[in-house]
Amino acid sequence: MKHFLTSLLIVLCTGSSVYAQDILTKTNGEQLKVVITEVSKKKVKYVRPGTQIPVYTLSTKEISHIDYLNGDRDTFNQEATAKATEAAEAQPKQESKAAQKGSQPLQFTVPAGDLYCIGDIYDKNGVKGLVITTSDNGTHGTIVSLDEACLAWCSLPRKAMKSIGTDDRNDGRVNMALLRSRIADEGLSWSDFPAAAWCKEHGEGWYLPAVNEVWLLGTVFCGGSRSNIKKRISKSLNSIIRNQGGEPLNRIMYYLSSTEAAERRSALFSHLNGDLPYIGDCGKEEQLFVRAFYRF
Question: Model-level pTM greater than 0.70?
């Protein structure tokens, strides 16, 4: 499979089961499992796997090298790299002693099947979308629909709007399950929740994303950093979507999430540009842009 933008996009993660890890080796030999979000000549920014905040900053003077999930390496201090290697080789070779006693060497198995990168088109078993996150060396990830709509979170009269309890900020599937339960228990209809219903109509497994998933889409669309937007990434992603007959992502519009706000008549949204705040709330009756998500 042809991979797009491999050297440009940072592999970002969201949800409880989709984590990518890069290995950052410091000049003192210490290794950190992190997710790199931004790299410049003087500093590197990263977060811990499975989190989005806080964002840590480290001077490149303190970094020997970074090994990325896709196999690439950035080296910052060649002399420090050599010292780190010597220090590692000087450690007691317990593994070698174990091997002498008959233990088996570690075996690494390359996952079977297709491998995906951010910017690829996932198209299997009637499910098609743009890959925006990957995990497990590209065998799993999240896709966003190639189409979009402008819909309200809820179409019930404002007086009848209740808090559904869809307050999960990381996994829209959890919110969709809660919404499905409330619809069944209270005799409501999916048509009362147009945005979620539109995502559901894409087929089994599609869902209205949680607010942090929408935020993540915006960060990927900006090239991995909201503070240093790479417009060539945005243009490339939209070009890929257009080539598949889809509707390009809109940088200036708000995208609705399945996450409710504290006020029962409001829901949260995010956008795809660098303007603060990245997350806001709106009335459930307001029509905002909607994209469906799917995890493979």
Answer: no
